[in-house]
Amino acid sequence: MTSEKSFPVSWDQFHRDARALAWRLAGVRDDWKAIVCITRGGLVPAAIIARELGTRLIETVCVASYHDYETQGELKVLKGISPDLTGDDGDGVLIVDDLTDTGKTAALVRSMLPKAHFATVYAKPKGRPLVDTFITEVSQDTWIFFPWDLGLTFQAPISKGVAG
Questions:
Q1: Which of 98, 132, 141, 149 does the annotation list as catalytic?
Q2: Which residues make up the binding site for GMP (predicted)?
Q3: Nearest Cα to 46, choosing from 80, 28, 22?
Q4: Domain-embedded: residue 153
Q5: Confidence (pTM)
Q6: How many domains are there within the chain?
Q7: Going by DSSP bridges, is the β-strand pair 117-123/5-8 parallel, antiparallel, or unpaired?
Q8: What are 78-125's pLDDT values in tens digits?
Q9: Which of 25, 18, 44, 47 is closest to 92 using CA atoms?
Q10: Which residue range is the domain that position 20 belongs to?
């Protein structure tokens, strides 16, 4: 990873942020037809949002990006979206993901459901224009460490050369 900045997110913080996203989405529409979550990162926020909004129909779109954690490679759709949800260009459908980074995955999924509402918990500047609703923006050079990627280890202080 060439990123100098890191943004570790605990389970508690992620849950609070996902619930905050649900609050914002409840103000957008109160009768979502379905949630389409982008796997794998969208699974956890989609579950939280579905609970908070009372949405029972949850679909997945599975997109793989072959990368080395520094650069994003070619995108491949491993599982598409049910025709029941794409028939009306996604009108009334909520797309959920944990993060929009470069915007490549977001653009691909948005092309499948152009009328859907796209929501992410976190957004970076390159991907932000593709998202309708998000909670926190972080700089493009920040690496977000999600709780499912973390173990309990020492975190070095932000200021280099300072002992904890």
A1: 98
A2: 101-105, 143-144
A3: 22
A4: no
A5: 0.87
A6: 1
A7: unpaired
A8: 999 999 999 899 999 999 999 999 999 999 999 999 999 999 999 999
A9: 25
A10: 3-143
